[in-house]
Amino acid sequence: MTLINGNYTSGSHKVNFDASGLNSGVYVYRIDAVGIDGKTFSSTMKMILNK
């Protein structure tokens, strides 16, 4: 599932995530970004969803 895909200004951004269609459990998510200088950033983390 892709939550957002586009260009954003630098700074903090908030995204609402509707997990109503998902079961409780451990999920893995990844954030990929490219800076204006061309440097790339990628981070993979775990998320625990409890309902």
If you had to describe this structure to a student in words, what would you say it looks like?
The chain is mostly beta strands. The protein has a domain of 28 residues. Strand 1 and strand 2 form a beta hairpin. It is elongated. The two termini are 19 Å apart.
Instruction: Write down how many β-strands occur, each being a DSSP E stretch of 2 or more residues.
Output: 2
Mean of pLDDT: 92
Beta content comes to 35-45%
Strand adjacency order, main sheet: 1-2
Basic shape: elongated
Spans of at least 5 consecutive residues whose pLDDT stays below 50 are none
Report the end-to-end length measured between terminal Cα atoms. Answer: 19 Å
Question: What is the share of helical residues?
Answer: under 10%
Count of alpha and pi helical runs: 0
Question: What is the N-to-C order of secondary-structure elements (H for helix, E for strand)?
Answer: EE
- C-alpha Rg, in Å? 13 Å
**Which structural category do the helix and sheet elements fall into?**
mainly beta
Major beta sheet summary: 2 strands, antiparallel
